[in-house]
Amino acid sequence: MPALVLLGAQWGDEGKGKATDLLGGSVDYVVRYQGGNNAGHTVVVGDQKYALHLLPSGILSPGCTPVIGNGVVVDPSVLLSELSGLNERGVDTSKLLISGNAHIITPYNVTVDKVTERFLGKRKIGTTGRGIGPTYADKINRVGIRVQDLYDESILTQKVEAALDVKNQMLTKLYNRRAIAVGQVVEELLGYADKLAPYVADTVLVLNEALEQDKVVLFEGGQGTLLDIDHGTYPFVTSSNPTAGGACTGAGVGPTKISRVIGILKAYTTRVGAGPFPTELFDEDGEALRRIGGERGVTTGRDRRCGWFDAVIARYATRVNGLTDFFLTKLDVLTGWEQIPVCVAYEIDGKRVEELPYSQTDFHHAKPVYEMLPGWNEDISKAKSFSDLPKNAQAYVKALEEMSGAPISAIGVGPGRTETIEINSFL
Ligand code: GDP
Ligand code: IMO
Ligand code: MG
Hints:
Its EC number is 6.3.4.4. The chain has helices at 16-24, 76-88, 107-120, 132-140, 153-174, 182-196, 203-212, 245-249, 284-293, 311-321, 360-365, 391-404; strands at residues 3-8, 29-32, 41-45, 48-52, 65-68, 73-74, 97-99, 103-104, 200-201, 217-220, 258-266, 269-271, 305-307, 309-310, 325-329, 339-348, 351-353, 367-374, 408-412, 420-422.
């Protein structure tokens, strides 16, 4: 059973970095398949904490080959500084492979992201400002720059010219900004070519050959199901497919190769940026979840919006991803509440609705229907097996599993690698 997908089941920041790192020691490849440095994946190893943005979390496992797939958008300056930051901390990054077909986030994509948000005003998405949306837009418009273009100056120049043609009109005439010079962009991009060259590879071939040899490949999603461009809360989403199908297109591996799809699920819910969030809390409970859970963005430093667990969303994630398992994270954060509300359904315009409505208007009107589950006060951070958990914590996990539609195969009780209860083995 060689290929597994590990992805966010909510709005991102579920603990994908920790879960990937936990499996990293037992897999041969860890592959990012979408998104870019909008992601912030935290890995805690002993007393060392790492925040990874573009690099797959497998980079911290010496036996594992980290791969940036064709579906990822790569900001070369961020990538190089992430690599040198890890090298300074003694991490060997020499095994990294980057797809030659991955698209490059150019400086003008970052500019367009920022001006677009500014002009949207009240209606802004709250993007990370990293140029993600505009880079994917260029890809779809067929004016994107790919990693392989760095190795042909003439083609690169033609492509940058084509991309800037319309953008400069827009920047100068609509947004009142200065035009961006083609030569300057080309020079900057060429400056990355030699530094990236050792890593660039035909990753589709590498991964498929690895799978043929029964090597274990783990696909690490960025963002989360509800931020998916097709299946998320559009337009308040990111511009890629974090859902399971994205692993196939974003890495060039067929769906028949994937045997396990693991949804990372926080024991409550968080969201960064704008958009609907039915269980969001604006009271001291929300404040407490933020404080105890350390809910501050790894990439932008923004406070995360916090709310209770939403089983409607979890069921939806099971369906659109074909989840085989859940990895429930941050159960320890819920210690100390007398009762814990869990959203089991929505009330929309007076009607009870069990499944996520496809209509944006309905979702905006969704009010959570809560069931109260009894809480616990015991410290659970040292629990090693399910039976070590207090009865009420066990019941909370079982209730979530029942409502969410897939077995909970691991439980996080702290940020560290070892602070995990493994119930069913993933490998
Ligand atoms: P990602 O983007 O999905 O990788 O998640 P982030 O790294 O953005 O946010 C998850 C945060 O929760 C990080 O600070 C992790 O160190 C932390 N974390 C992960 N799992 C657990 C857990 O089970 N318990 C606690 N207390 N913290 C956790
Ligand atoms: P990880 O991988 C949480 C959100 C942004 C914004 C929306 C669009 O750490 O879970 P973008 O810059 O992608 O165009 O912004 O998506 N967003 C995330 N929220 N975790 C992330 O990544 C996110 N990446 C993007 O806040 O609402
Ligand atoms: Mg994150």
